[in-house]
Write a structure and sequence with these properties.
The complex is a heterotrimer of chains A (about 100), B (about 725) and C (about 190). The relative contact order of chain A is 0.14. Helices cover about 80% and strands about 0% of the residues of chain A. Chain A is an all-alpha fold and about 100 residues long. Chain B is mainly alpha-helical. In chain B, helix 14 packs across helix 17 and helix 16 packs parallel to helix 20. Chain B contains 25 helices and 4 strands. In chain B, strand 3 and strand 4 form a beta hairpin. Chain B is globular and about 115 Å long. Chain C is extended and about 65 Å long. Chain C has about 190 residues and is an all-alpha fold. The chains are: A mainly alpha (about 100), B mainly alpha (about 725), C mainly alpha (about 190). Chains in contact: A-B, A-C, B-C. At the A-C interface, helix 1, helix 2 and helix 3 of A face helix 1, helix 2, helix 3, helix 4 and helix 6 of C.
Chain lengths: ~100, ~725, ~190
C-alpha cells in the first residue's frame, strides 16, 4: 500500500498545485493549499507505517500549523475584503513594479 | 672597423677640444629653453599674442610673410634679450664647431670619434645608446649648419624685429638647429631619426609660424604629412636593417653590409626604403609638393630650413650610408634617376613662376635633384660639395629675396596698398634702390648658373663629370633597371642634368632681370620708399656672397690644378666614403681621358653662358605688367604655371578618397554606428531590456509569484531526478 | 489489521482503492467548482476519504483528528468566512484566465507529478530517512493506539510541541487583530 499511497499523495498534491495556479478567488486558492497539506499528511502517514511513529507525530504538528495558518489567513482575507470589496486576486496588485 | 672607444686606447680626439662635441647640440637646446621661457613669460599676464597682429589680414591669400603692416610696430617686451640669446648660442656653437674642426685637423683620424652620452634603449638584443659620432663627414655638416645658421639668425634679428612672436621664432629656430645637429652628429640610425623627426616638427612649427592665416597652417600641415610618408620608408629601412644585419649603429652596419651579397634583395630593399625617406625630407619626386608651399613661412626660415640644412638631410643620410648603397647598384640607379627627373621637372616649373620665393623653391628642388644624382652614382664627395656650395648661394638668394620683400613691404606699408609684395611682376628696376642686395644676388645667380670660378661651377661640373665617368666601368653601368641597361640610364641622366643646368641658368636670369632690371612696376607712390635693408640684414648677405665666390676652392678638380689645392674635400672625406666610392667604380679611381674632361667642362660652361644669353635675348622685362593687370595664361604655359597640376592630382587621387573613407566609413560607420550605436547605446539598451524583463516579473499579483515558485520547485526536483 | 487472509486483503485493497478514487474525484471536483461553497463541500469530502485512508493505514488517531480538526474546525471556519463575506454566488466569480493558462498549468502540474513519481521509484526516499528511525519502528508499542504517538510527542519532540503552542498563541492574537473592524478613520 505504500506505493499507492505515495502515488495518491502525489496526485492530490498536483491537483492542489493546479488549483493554485488556475483559480483567482483568494479563498479557493487557500483551500487548494489546504488540499496540498492534506496530501503531504497522507504521505507522512503512509511512510510512518514503514518507519515508525515519527510520521504520525509530524502529522499532528502539520495539522496544528494548518489550523493556525487558516485562521490568520482568513483574517487577512477579511481585512483585504473590507479594503477592496473583492477577493479577486487579479485586482490586488499594489506590489506591482 | 673597430669602434673608436676601445678600452685599450681611446680615440686621439678625446684628448683635444673635440671632447666638447656634446656642447654642440646642447647650446641651441639651451637657447630654445631660454627663448621659449621668454616667449611664455610675456603671455602669462596678457594672454597669447595674436600672430595676425603683425600680419595684414587682407593679403591676397597665398601665404605671405609680412614683416610690416598697417599697425604700429609691436616689438616684443623681451626682444632685446632674445636678440642676444638666439644668435648668441649659434655663434657659440659655431665657435665650438671650429674648435672641433681644428682639433680634427691636428690628429690622424682614421676612425670616427664616438661619444656615448647614456644608454637610451637597452631592449633585449637591441641596445641603442645616445651616441654622438664625429667624423669628417659630420664635421662638414656641422660647420655648414652652425655657420650658415648663425648668419641666418643674425639676419632674422633684423627681419623679424617687429613681430610679436619674436621670442617664439627664435625658440623654434634654436630648436631646429638642435635637432639638425642631433641628426648630423647622431651615431646610429635611431638617433639620426630623432633628429630627422625633430627637424620635421620644427619645419612644421616654423612654416606655420603665422598660423592664424589658414594658408600658412595648411602649408605646415602639408609639409609634416608628406614628410611622414617618407619617414615610414625610413622606419621600414631601419626594421629591415635590424632584422637582417642585427645592428643599427653606423659602424657595425657598414661592416656587416659589406659582407652581404652585392646587389642582393635585402640591401636593395633597405636602400630603396631609405630613399623613400630621403624623398620625403629632401623633396624629390613624388614627395616634393610640400616645399613650394613651405614658402608660406618667414623668409629666413626658407633660407635655413628649405635651402641650406633640413632638405640636405637626405643627401647626408645617403652619404652616411655609403657602404650600404654601394652594395646595391640597382638602388643607386633609382636614386640617380629620380634625382635627375626631379631636377628636370622642377626646372621646367621654375621657368614660369611669378612669386620670387617660389622660383627659389623650385630651384632648390632642382638642385637637390642634382645632389641626389651625385650620391646616386656613388660620387659622395661631389654630392656633399654641391650641398655645401648650394647652402651658400641658396641661402644668399633667399636672404636677398627677403631683403627685397622687406623693402616692398615697407613701401606698401607706407602707401597703405595691399598688393602682392612677392610677385616679380610688381617689382623691376630694384637695382637702383637696393644695390648691395642686387650685386650680392648676382654673385649667387652666377654661382648657381655654373659660371666658371664661382662656387656652383665647380660642384655642378663635378657632378656631371662623375655621371659621365661612371657610364662605363662601374657597378651601376652593369646593373639594369626594368630591363634597361645601367649605362644607358646614366647617359639619360647626364642629358637631363645638362638640360636642367640650362634651364637653371635661364630661370635664374629671368628672376634677376624681372626683379632688379628694367622699369619699376611697383608704382609711383611707393618708389621713394624702396630702400636697402639695415646692416644687420645685409651683413650676413655679404658673408654669404664671399663664400659663394670662394666656396669652389673646397674641391678644385685636377684639370684646373693651377688655381689652387686639388681635391681638398676629396681628401678630407676619403676615410668616410672613399671605400664605398671605389666599390662603385670597381676598385679604380674614375678616370676620364683628358680630352673628354675638357669637352665636358666646355659643355658645362657653354650651357651656362647659353642660358644666360637666351634669357637676356628673349625676356623683355619692359613688357611685363603689374600682377593685378596680368592676363591669364593658357596652353602649356598655364600648365607650367600651375606646376603640372600635380597638387590637384594628388588631391583627387589620395586626399579626397582618404577624406571620403574617413567620413563615410570611419566616422559614420565605425564611430557613429558601431561604437556609439552598438557599444554605447547598445549596452544601454541591453541594460534597459534586461531591466524590463526583470520588471515584468514584478506584477504584484500572488498568482505570478506562485507560478515562479512552482517553476523553481520543478527545477530543483528535476535536478534530483536527473542526477 | 494484520490478517494474512487473502479475502481480507482483497477487501482491504478494494476499500483502499475506493477511497483513493473518491479522494481524487472529489479533489478534481473541488478544483473546478465556480462557487466557493460547493468547492468547500467537495474539499470536505476529500478530507473524509483521507480520514478513512488514515484509519486503513493504522493511524486511527490521526484519522479521528482529521475529521475533528480539519473537517470539523478548519473547513467550517472557511465556510463561516465565505458566508460572512457573502461570496457564495457563482455569478460574480468568473475567472477565465484564458485557455492557454489552463493548458500550461496542467502541463506544469503533470511535469511535477512525473518528477515526483520518478523520485519515489528509486530508493531516494530510503536515503533521506535518518538512521535512528528504524530503531523506533522496532520498539515495542505500549499505550494502545495513542501511545506510540504520545510518547515521542512529549519526550523527543517536546520542544517542538511547546513551540507549536506559542505559534497557536501568535495565530490567535494575529487573527483577532487582523479581523478587528477598524472604527477609526481610514
Amino acid at each position: 500500500m505504500l506505493v499507492e499511497s505515495l502515488a495518491l499523495s502525489a496526485v492530490l498534491f498536483t491537483i492542489g498545485v493546479i488549483g493554485v495556479l488556475t483559480r483567482r478567488n483568494a479563498i479557493i486558492i487557500f483551500m487548494c493549499v489546504e488540499l496540498m497539506l492534506n496530501a503531504v499528511n497522507l504521505s507522512f502517514v503512509a511512510l510512518s507505517k514503514l518507519h515508525g511513529a515519527a510520521g504520525q507525530v509530524f502529522v499532528v504538528f502539520t495539522m496544528t500549523v494548518a489550523a493556525a495558518e487558516a485562521a490568520v489567513g482568513l483574517a487577512i482575507i477579511i481585512a483585504i475584503f473590507r479594503h477592496t470589496q473583492t477577493v479577486n486576486l487579479q485586482n490586488i496588485n499594489i506590489l506591482k513594479g | 672597423m673597430i669602434p673608436a672607444m676601445t678600452p685599450e686606447g681611446a680615440h686621439p680626439l678625446a684628448a683635444t677640444a673635440a671632447r666638447l662635441v656634446w656642447l654642440l647640440p646642447l647650446l641651441p637646446l639651451l637657447g630654445f629653453l631660454l627663448n621659449g621661457t621668454l616667449a611664455m613669460l610675456g603671455v602669462a599676464k596678457t594672454g597669447p599674442a595674436d600672430p595676425s597682429a603683425a600680419h595684414d589680414a587682407h593679403d591676397s591669400g597665398h601665404g605671405h610673410d609680412a614683416a610690416h603692416d598697417d599697425h604700429a610696430p609691436t616689438r616684443h617686451k623681451y626682444a632685446a634679450l632674445v636678440s642676444l640669446i638666439g644668435p648668441g648660442v649659434l655663434i657659440a656653437a659655431f665657435g665650438v664647431a671650429v674648435a672641433c674642426f681644428l682639433a680634427m685637423r691636428s690628429v690622424d683620424m682614421e676612425h670616427p670619434y664616438i661619444v656615448t652620452l647614456y644608454q637610451w634603449m637597452p631592449v633585449g638584443d637591441l641596445t641603442i645608446g645616445a651616441t654622438l659620432h664625429l667624423d669628417q663627414l659630420s664635421m662638414v655638416m656641422v660647420l655648414v649648419v652652425t655657420g650658415v645658421g648663425a648668419l641666418i639668425h643674425v639676419f632674422s634679428v633684423g627681419y623679424m624685429q617687429d613681430d610679436p612672436g619674436y621670442p617664439r621664432y627664435f625658440a623654434y629656430l634654436n630648436l631646429f638647429i638642435f635637432f639638425m645637429l642631433v641628426l648630423v652628429l647622431g651615431g646610429s640610425y635611431p638617433v639620426l631619426f630623432v633628429g630627422w623627426e625633430g627637424v620635421g616638427l620644427c619645419s612644421y612649427l616654423l612654416i606655420g609660424f603665422w598660423f592664424s592665416e589658414k594658408v600658412n597652417a595648411d602649408a605646415g600641415k602639408k609639409a609634416f604629412i608628406v614628410n611622414r610618408i617618407g619617414d615610414f620608408g625610413f622606419l621600414v629601412a631601419m626594421f629591415l636593417m635590424f632584422a637582417n644585419l642585427g645592428a643599427l649603429d653606423f659602424v657595425p652596419v657598414a661592416a656587416k653590409a659589406a659582407e652581404l651579397p652585392m646587389g642582393g634583395i635585402v640591401v636593395t630593399a633597405i636602400c630603396l626604403f631609405m630613399f623613400l625617406g630621403c624623398a620625403g625630407k629632401s623633396a624629390q619626386i613624388p614627395l616634393y609638393v610640400w616645399l613650394p608651399d613651405a614658402m608660406a613661412g618667414p623668409t629666413p626660415v626658407s633660407a635655413l630650413i628649405h635651402a641650406a640644412t633640413m632638405v640636405t638631410a637626405g643627401v647626408y643620410l645617403i652619404a652616411r650610408s655609403a657602404t650600404l648603397f654601394s652594395m646595391a647598384p640597382t638602388a643607386q640607379l633609382v636614386v640617380a634617376l629620380i634625382g635627375a627627373l626631379t631636377a628636370f621637372l622642377a626646372a621646367t616649373i621654375g621657368l614660369k613662376q611669378w612669386d620670387i620665393k617660389k622660383v627659389l623653391a623650385y630651384s632648390t628642388v632642382s638642385q637637390l635633384g642634382f645632389m641626389f644624382v651625385a650620391v646616386g652614382v656613388g660620387s659622395y664627395v661631389a654630392g656633399i660639395f654641391h650641398l655645401v656650395t648650394h647652402s651658400f648661394f641658396k641661402a644668399l638668394l633667399f636672404l636677398g629675396s627677403g631683403s627685397v620683400i622687406y623693402a616692398m613691404h615697407a613701401a606698401y606699408h607706407a602707401t597703405h596698398k595691399h598688393d602682392d609684395a612677392q610677385d616679380m611682376r610688381n617689382m623691376g628696376g630694384l637695382r637702383r634702390h637696393l644695390p648691395i642686395t642686387c650685386y650680392l644676388m648676382w654673385i649667387a645667380t652666377l654661382a648657381i648658373a655654373g659660371i666658371p670660378l664661382f662656387s656652383g661651377f665647380f660642384s655642378k661640373d663635378e657632378i656631371l663629370s662623375s655621371v659621365f665617368a661612371r657610364a662605363h666601368g662601374s657597378t651601376i653601368a652593369d646593373a639594369t633597371l626594368f630591363g634597361v641597361h645601367g649605362s644607358t640610364i646614366l647617359m639619360v641622366i647626364y642629358g637631363l642634368g645638362i638640360a636642367s643646368a640650362l634651364m637653371t641658368a635661364i630661370y635664374m636670369m629671368r628672376m634677376m632681370l624681372y626683379t632688379f632690371h628694367g622699369p619699376n612696376r611697383t608704382g609711383e607712390a611707393e618708389r621713394p620708399h624702396l630702400a636697402e635693408a639695415p646692416w644687420v640684414m645685409t651683413g650676413p648677405l655679404v658673408v654669404l656672397g664671399v663664400l659663394s665666390l670662394v666656396g669652389g676652392w673646397l674641391n678644385v678638380p685636377a684639370l684646373l690644378s693651377g688655381i689652387g689645392p686639388v681635391g681638398v674635400l676629396d681628401h678630407w672625406l676619403e676615410p668616410v666614403v672613399g671605400e664605398a666610392s671605389l666599390r662603385t667604380t670597381l676598385g679604380a679611381a674614375p678616370h676620364l681621358p683628358h680630352q673628354t674632361e675638357l669637352v665636358l667642362v666646355g659643355v658645362a660652361i657653354a650651357i651656362a653662358v647659353a642660358g644666360i644669353a637666351f634669357a637676356v635675348w628673349r625676356l623683355k622685362p619692359a613688357a611685363l605688367v603689374p600682377k593685378k593687370d596680368a592676363v591669364p595664361t593658357e596652353g602649356f604655359v598655364r600648365v607650367l604655371e600651375n606646376k603640372y597640376f600635380v597638387d590637384e592630382g594628388y588631391d583627387k587621387a589620395f586626399v579626397q578618397p582618404t577624406l571620403g573613407i574617413s567620413r563615410a566609413v570611419l566616422w559614420k560607420g565605425l564611430d557613429n554606428g558601431i561604437i556609439d550605436g552598438l557599444f554605447v547605446n547598445g549596452s544601454a539598451l541591453l541594460a534597459r531590456a534586461i531591466g524590463w524583463m526583470g520588471s515584468q516579473l514584478q506584477t504584484g499579483q500572488v498568482g505570478t509569484y506562485a507560478w515562479v515558485l512552482l517553476i523553481g520547485v520543478i527545477t530543483i526536483l528535476g535536478a534530483f531526478t536527473f542526477r | 489489521m494484520m490478517h494474512a487472509n487473502e479475502f481480507h486483503s482483497l477487501v482491504y485493497s478494494f476499500t483502499f482503492y475506493f477511497f483513493g478514487l473518491v479522494a481524487i474525484a472529489s479533489a478534481l471536483a473541488f478544483v473546478t467548482r465556480k462557487s466557493p461553497v460547493a468547492a468547500a463541500i467537495w474539499l470536505v469530502n476529500v478530507m473524509f476519504s483521507l480520514a478513512a485512508l488514515y484509519v486503513m493505514l493504522d493511524a486511527q488517531f490521526i484519522g479521528a483528528m482529521q475529521v475533528l480538526v480539519y473537517t470539523g474546525a478548519i473547513m467550517v471556519l472557511f465556510l463561516f468566512v465565505i458566508m460572512l463575506l457573502n461570496l457564495g454566488h457563482p455569478s460574480e466569480l468568473a475567472d477565465a484566465r484564458g485557455k492557454w493558462g489552463y493548458v500550461l498549468a496542467l502541463f506544469v502540474g503533470l511535469v511535477m507529478l512525473a518528477e515526483v513519481m520518478a523520485l519515489t521509484r528509486d530508493n531516494t526516499v530510503d536515503r533521506m530517512i535518518p538512521p535512528g528511525l528504524a530503531a523506533t519502528a522496532a520498539a515495542p508499542t505500549t499505550g494502545g493506539i495513542i501511545g506510540p504517538i504520545a510518547a515521542p510527542l512529549f519526550t523527543e519532540y517536546l520542544f517542538a510541541f511547546e513551540l507549536t503552542s506559542v505559534l497557536l498563541l501568535a495565530a490567535i492574537v494575529g487573527a483577532v487583530v487582523l479581523g478587528k473592524r477598524r472604527t477609526d478613520a481610514r
